[in-house]
Amino acid sequence: MLSKLQIKNYALIDALDIEFDRKLNIITGETGAGKSIIMGALGLILGNRAESKHFFDESSKCIIEGHFEIAQYDLSDLFNQLDLDYEDTTIIRRELHADGKSRAFVNDTPVTLQTLKTLGERLIDIHSQHATLQINTESFQLLVLDTVAQQQALLNECKTTYLSYKKSIASLQALEEELAKSRAEYDFNQFVFNELEQANLQADEQETLETEQNQLENAEEIKRHFHGAANLMQSEEVNVLDGLKSVLSFVQNGTKYLPSAEALQERLQSSLIELKDIAAELEQVADGVTMDEERLNIVNDRLSVLYSLQKKHRVDKIQDLLQLQEELEQKLQASDSQEEQIEVLKATIEKLRSNLTALADQITANRTQVKQTIEQEVQDVLSKVGMPNAQLQIELKKKEDFKSTGQDEVVFLFSANKGQTLQPIHKVASGGELSRVMLAIKSLVAKSSSLPTIIFDEIDTGISGEVALRVGEIMEQLAKHMQVISITHLPQIASQGTAHFKVYKEDLGEKTKSNIVLLKKEERVLEIAQMLSGANPEATAIKHAEEMLK
């Protein structure tokens, strides 16, 4: 429950410190006194965005802090999911700055607004006049059925399965489109791949063939040059080797008389041996080069194939052709594997659909089981609040298509009077009737959801007199199970409260500020008397107020 609410520097509020009762809290005050400001501040710590930047003092920050007693509501798992420290007395704080910056904390841990929303939904249900319109939406109507049926765990499983189902269907569609595209290209890719594979490409083949081609085409030139070199060294009348032998002879004869020249003699001897080897190898090279027209034709044909493939695929190297061949092979393999993946996905989708059908069937069965209970209990409450002939009928239809909430469509049909045809509630219920129907539903849902606190923000539109008294009694009964805070203009409702707060405005110099005070017994009598008859109540109004409070 909300045990304390502190508001500093927000709109017309300088500083408020409100301590709420565990049961039925009443908040009254003139229009414009600041009741909606208090609700706005409370909304900020429940994750609402700060719509206004109005501060009581622009030079200071705004702080809203709520203290929640949650020991008996089994929220520790939620705190773990949100990665928050659990405390039996949990403090939620929101800070707003004049520059628009905002910070939020749960037990002094910084959190996002989404975290505040998630936590706030488990702490407080704020029901205002505008929230009455929720009853017209299918999502709210399903929520009522599911809350009373207490099947949140089943719904969570259904939602998870549904999301997996939809994701798998999307994946299947994408894969089938990809396969169709692959099949359109498959024959062409296969043809090109076969052509490249049959070419039996080798990484360094082109360079080797081009070198061989050059040698075969110039065989005569190669032979002529190498034979010429060999002849000059050893076959001509005046050749290199004979001349070098003569040089060596002279040096040998001179060395007999000059031993220090022996080193030159040895070098000449070595050079002569090396040149004899070179001359021999020149002959071998020249003799080894042959004119092979057949081989040249083979090389030219092979190079023609390589050049043709390169030109066809607009590349310059065999490595590029080999890379293209590898990519085509992967595409062809992918086409084959896509068919296998599609079959696996189809099996997965069928299994998910089967699971989803079973979950949806159980959800429908649970909703059907509580439908009559909701109809009867709402009708009983409506009878107490001045609508004895009102009927609520819940029409549940199962559709073929799945949703995250199952397969059901729901319509709340309503009739306020005898002989009136049941129709969708938004078509036939007035504002006052809708408020009472919503009160009846909220009372029922609150008992089933074990929510700590419910706030009724001026839902008394369109009701008065005895009906208002019955509405107050229902709130009082509801307060036996949970904390109730009711903002009201009706004395019949105000008289039912365990604690009664009054919101009022006061002028301080050039500023107006809102305040709130917990009324004592005598003050409460006067407040209710004023609500009955005006600012200056007569004795009869005061006596009536005293009787109402008894």
From TrEMBL:
The UniProt entry, under Pfam families, shows:
SMC_N
Kindly give the InterPro entries that the UniProt entry links to this protein: DNA_recomb/repair_RecN (IPR004604), P-loop_NTPase (IPR027417), RecF/RecN/SMC_N (IPR003395)
Coiled-coil annotation reads 165-222, 318-362
**Locate the RecF/RecN/SMC N-terminal domain: which residues?**
2-507
Q: Which family does the UniProt entry place this protein in?
A: Belongs to the RecN family.
- Which NCBIfam families does the entry link to? recN
What's this protein's name?
A: DNA repair protein RecN
